[in-house]
Amino acid sequence: MLRQIITSSRKYNFHSHTQFCDGHATITEMAEAVAKAGFTHWGFTPHSTVPMPTSCNMLAENVPAYLAEVDRVKDLYRGRVNFYASMEIDYLGDKWGATNPYFDTLPLDYRLSSVHFISSLVTGEEIDIDGRPEAFFVKMKEHFDNDIRYVVDKFYDRSKEMLQAGGFEILGHFEKIGFNASQYQPGIEDEPWYHRHIDEMIDLILSSDVITEINTKALNQNNRLFPSPRFWQRLIDARVPLMVNSDAHYPDRINAGRDETFTLLEKHGYKVPRL
Predict the structure, then answer these.
(1) Are 143 and 121 in contact (CB under 8 A)?
(2) How far is it, in rounded angstroms, from Cα 111 to Cα 131?
(3) What's the mean pLDDT in 246-257?
(4) In angstroms, what is the C-alpha Rg of the chain?
């Protein structure tokens, strides 16, 4: 289903957030904006429930209400927009991931999986390393002894484990750590050891059956795409299916960066659907 959609249309987005996690609008408000903008396929992907307290993940007790709300807008917009119920499932190693039996109990239309947390060097607890640079810098000191190599290594090691474990259709922003890491230590993405992580990630993507997301959320604000275009060519040459998602948290950003990204993909030789 997903592959047919992304090869035949640009009017899709399969990564978005609402009030059920860290989004800034209701499902109703997002759905209205989506329909007005002319999208024909839209997926809701709240940060999945996880077995620990966090500031951004959906609570397990709210999952039934979330699913019911998506069902409501599915019916409301039937024939105009195809809405889908999904989750951005956090991979926490042996602790949690898309293969956990819990997700088999939910009527999800597809699964998107990402890494946002790694283990603290100080306490061992799971720490979100996906926030703004200023918050990341504080966590570097408080939880990681200012060891950026540890943070990057653990992010990619966990990402590789996630790919090997499977259980999902879409790989979310697999190079997201690059932004905060490069803010903390400029030039880190040019280091040979960093490139080895990317090469190993791409090797696993090529041997898997997942769709790889090009995440456009930070393009307009920070001039970043995840993964960076510098790492696209192997994926394109191998004809890995690429999906352009806005990771929208606000109704007015539902298409942010997507048009520019489709143009850039074409320049790299990737066949994108016509408008």
Answers:
(1) yes
(2) 22
(3) 96
(4) 18
Helices and strands, number each (H, E), in the chain: 11, 10
- Position 3: which residue type? R
Q: Which residue has the tokens 């940060």?
A: 47
118, 148 Cβ separation under 8 angstroms: no
**What is the rounded CA–CA span in Å between residue 195 and residue 167?**
26
Please spell the DSSP secondary structure of 45-104, one letter per residue.
Answer: -PBPP-SS--SSSPPGGGHHHHHHHHHHHHHHTTTT-EEEE--EEEP-GGG--TTSHHHH
- Longest CA span, the chain: 54
Joined tokens for residue 251: 């109704």
pLDDT at 255: 97
pLDDT for 253: 96
Q: Is 191 helix (H, G, I), strand (E, B) or coil?
A: coil
